[in-house]
Amino acid sequence: MDSDYEEMGSLDDLPVNVKVFNDTLIYLPYYVPPNLELTMTNQGMSLREWIRQLCSIPDKDIPYTAEIYLTAMTLDTRTLRNDFPKLEEVLIGFREDEEDESDNVNVRNVLREFLSNVQNVKLCDINFEKSRFIQHIGISSLKDLYFYDPINMNFDYLFTLNAESCTIETDQIPLRDLNRFFKLWMKGSNPKLKKLMISCDTEITPDWNVLLKGLRAEEAEAARSKKFFIINCRGIRAEIEVKHLGTSASVTFNVSKSYL
Length: 260
Description:
Sdz-33 F-box domain-containing protein; 10-stranded mixed β-sheet; 17% helix; 12 strands; alpha/beta; Zygotic_Embryogenesis-Asso; F-box_Sdz-33
């Protein structure tokens, strides 16, 4: 950033300094992470040159991740792909109050540049009623799709899901929608899905009978949770684990790798 602590508007700008951390960094405005190791001068390099320099380090185990927050976005995302390597993960943080048309344009640009290569996508505070691109993410061939505090989430979205794993942290457990989802899975839908987890904060124990109605599930012994098994038309077995501990509840769906 510049000397007035404003966002940089171009990758060709010179940063005032470069902070080095010894672990994963999650950026929050005005927050100083505890794992700051040292602060260096800019070494005469622009932000674009720093990106290229760091990405030239020959370490195949480094997973490249980009975190993009719409409230602070000033850079032209269409130019980023030329400077970043293939990303493994993209996190997009939406406005908590209200999205506007510029948000949709920015996200569409980000997805156009990176979605074909990334394996994991994380979406924070996305509003399902205002985000017109959400279906494009769902049908993409992803390894993991993660939703944190989605707004007005339409759980019919699960029926077109093409990711191997999906995690949703939300304000409710959609028991009837999940019941319908499991019934469709038993008929052969969502063949790529390996894991689905939905969790929420609640002091009230959900009525798991609504979730399990008509599934002909086989119950198994489990500590601190309940586990059930269902089988689909291809003979593939899956485990449904339901849990309510204190102030949180969750449903976890794991598909077996083997056939019966």
